[in-house]
């Protein structure tokens, strides 16, 4: 992307952050992500179907697979990620033979991997895919196998839909063979200017209902990784931090200090766990009690139920700022040093974020002004409120996602010299 284009995108993101605080595959709506077919999308009466209760996914045993590679291929693999203004972390993967390069963001909140398709059966559906986007063309790949089954996934910014195809996916120095993925022919406009062309899902697919194994599942099944674990180190833009790293197959001790605090998963198909309590380091009389949370790479900040977020921000001394239908909170720079730590008690351990970790500054803000990076969301009646811990949390805590043991682990991310 050239510079003027980047500047335009930046402005878009600033506007977006003020109103939604979200990425194209936004968290705020992660909870309503549903997989539906293209046909159902076109059939309004059936749009709001209940998500069926899924059984827990038991991880496939690598040694049950006839396709498995030799054990020497099983080692942890680091994927270096580019950080776009703390709002998006992405990397290149390739699909097909010869390899077609495509930029993807990694999403812990969804399972399918999709890339823009060069094959657009209908001009009417083409509106959103254009310009700098890289596309996959099945006609120029010798390892492509047709599948054709439709896919659809809903994100905050809208719906991505198309059909499934099968091909080799290569990244992290290895090749996942015969991966089923989505070729997108409908994509929300917002993706058109984004640094990532597609999304690689690191969530849970429903094998029992005929969904395919995820890219990560297939890496394990094909013997490419020593363990069904992946971990993120996310750096801070504008600092001397080393590059961000997604480690596949385990953890990379270069990027964290101390022991992991583990929490078992509390939902069958999400990276969801229980927080015992959310508190502030200086207020003995203030605490938010037991709640559910997901660690979500679709979110740049921390999102929680509005009433609790309001109480928390008030207690922090943040000033409310109405932006459209969204209430945000701001701090002045002089406040930052005296703000308490935000503490999450998980499995009896304290995970503590300083104001430097939870306050957010966006390009274009008045100098010396910061947003509180704790943002409210209204939950529907009957919907379980779930906190989304996004990039700001993950920059503070190196996070491992352990699919085999159905747990998630947090350790203090290594701190490098920071410039503010
Ligand atoms: C590419 O995929 C589309 C949709 O499945 C299909 O119509 C087309 O024939 C495919 N191309 C090849 C070379 O198979
Ligand atoms: C987490 O799950 C494991 C295995 O099911 C169990 O042994 C352990 O006690 C659980 N830990 C907590 C804190 O519930
Ligand atoms: C699925 O996992 C959750 C959380 O670990 C557990 O409470 C539940 O009993 C499990 N359900 C089944 C069907 O194994």
UniProtKB/TrEMBL annotation:
It comes from the Eukaryota. The active site is at residues 107, 296. Residues 36-53 have a biased composition (Basic and acidic residues). One of its GO terms (molecular function) is aspartic-type endopeptidase activity. Residues 30-75 are annotated as: Disordered. Keywords: Aspartyl protease, Hydrolase, Protease, Signal. Pfam families: Asp. This is Cathepsin d. It comes from Plakobranchus ocellatus.
């Amino acid at each position: 992307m050239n510079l003027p284009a980047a500047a335009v995108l930046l402005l878009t993101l600033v506007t977006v952050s003020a109103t939604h605080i979200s990425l194209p595959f936004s968290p705020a709506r992660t909870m309503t992500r549903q997989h539906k077919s293209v046909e159902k999308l076109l059939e309004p009466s059936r749009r709001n179907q209940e998500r069926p209760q899924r059984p827990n996914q038991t991880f496939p045993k690598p040694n049950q697979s006839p396709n498995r590679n030799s054990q020497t291929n099983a080692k942890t693999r680091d994927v270096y990620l580019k950080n776009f203004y703390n709002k998006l972390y992405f990397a290149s993967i390739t699909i097909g033979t010869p390899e077609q390069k495509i930029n993807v963001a990694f999403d812990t909140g969804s399972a399918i991997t999709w890339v823009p398709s060069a094959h657009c059966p209908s001009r009417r559906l083409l509106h959103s895919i254009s310009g700098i986007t890289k596309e996959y063309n099945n006609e120029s790949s010798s390892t492509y196998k047709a599948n054709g089954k439709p896919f659809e996934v809903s994100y905050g910014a809208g719906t991505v839909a198309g059909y499934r195809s099968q091909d080799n996916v290569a990244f992290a120095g290895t090749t996942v063979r015969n991966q089923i993925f989505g070729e997108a022919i409908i994509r929300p406009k917002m993706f058109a200017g984004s640094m990532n062309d597609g999304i690689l899902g690191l969530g849970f697919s429903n094998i029992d209902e005929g969904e395919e194994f995820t890219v990560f599942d297939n890496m394990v099944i094909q013997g490419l990784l020593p363990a069904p674990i992946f971990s993120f180190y996310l750096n801070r833009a504008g600092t001397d931090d080393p590059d961000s790293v997604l480690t596949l197959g385990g953890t990379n001790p270069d990027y964290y200090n101390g022991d992991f605090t583990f929490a078992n998963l509390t939902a069958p198909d999400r990276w969801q766990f229980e927080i015992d309590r959310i508190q502030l380091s200086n207020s003995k009389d203030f605490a938010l009690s037991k709640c559910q949370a997901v660690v979500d790479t679709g979110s740049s900040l921390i999102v929680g139920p509005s009433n609790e977020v309001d109480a928390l921000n008030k207690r922090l001394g943040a000033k409310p700022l109405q932006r459209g239908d969204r209430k945000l909170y701001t701090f002045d720079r002089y406040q930052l040093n005296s703000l308490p730590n935000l503490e999450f008690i998980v499995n009896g351990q304290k995970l503590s974020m300083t104001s430097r970790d939870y306050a957010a500054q966006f390009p274009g803000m008045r100098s010396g002004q910061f947003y509180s990076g704790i943002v409210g969301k209204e939950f529907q009646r009957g919907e379980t409120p779930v906190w989304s811990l996004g990039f700001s949390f993950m920059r503070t805590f190196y996070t491992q996602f352990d699919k085999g043991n159905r747990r998630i682990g947090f350790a203090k991310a290594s701190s490098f010299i920071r410039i503010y």
